[in-house]
Amino acid sequence: MQPPEAREARRVGRAFPLFPASMAILGLSFLALMFLAPLGTLVYSSLNPIYADPGLPQRLYDLLLSGDFEAVVSELQGYAGNPVLAAFQNEVLLGALRVSLITSGASSVICICLGIPLAYVLARYDFPGRRTLKTLVELPMVLPPVVAGISLILLLGPNTPLGSFLRQVGWELVFTWRGIILAQTFVASPFFVRSAIVSFEEVPVSLELAARSLGASPFKVFRSVTLPLSARGLVAGWAMMWARAMGEFGATIMVSSNVPGQSYTLTTAIYWMFWAGGIHQSIAAALVLLAVAFFVLFTVRLLVER
User: Are both 97 and 156 inside the same structural domain?
Assistant: First the structure.
């Protein structure tokens, strides 16, 4: 006869598979409904553009009843080729992609140059108010982007003291392409700084002290010991920051002039094209952002898990 402990263990072993099976069903259902279905629909719409224009059959029917056969031919010619693929040659879309790449690159440089010193101080030194500063650094991650937009307008707008002074010396920031860089930096920098703080904290202090004991200067220790050992986390933080800057919308649309070819980003182009009836152009711009986001996240995962 088996002891009670053995019977209990066998009973639990028989019942346990129900739990992971239930968790798997719930988790995969959530993934399918909330992530795969919307994104799959976006990709499917690029392959079948008629799906994104459900009113086409009704319009064709009405035109046939009215006898306007030229309009019917014109409607069908628009779908002779794939209008989503044709949208990739749209000058407004190409200009928006160019502006997004330039502004996100500039904001990334600002975040790296200023974020690394800030992250190092917060990671290596203990001083009064350190936790408060860490909270302030991460605050833009949870703030609605429109809050960032209105904050920048109130600080640097043309009618504010600082904004009017900068305007007099020829430095207009808000409502120009420079405003896009400021908005992207405000919203995306916490992703880099937070990752950099964690990366610096994971570097053993003993290694830095050993290098100092061998006569290395603080800067040389930072350059030859701290940075190489934290490089993986810094690169991952940069990738997340850059992707966030590319996808920024709320703050960008408030502080830019929204001029096609000059201050249109991909996100603002999606918004204006959609409401102007250019659904296929919006799909093309969304696909570009989707591809960029997937590539960045996949690269980050390779770096972190390698």
Answer: yes
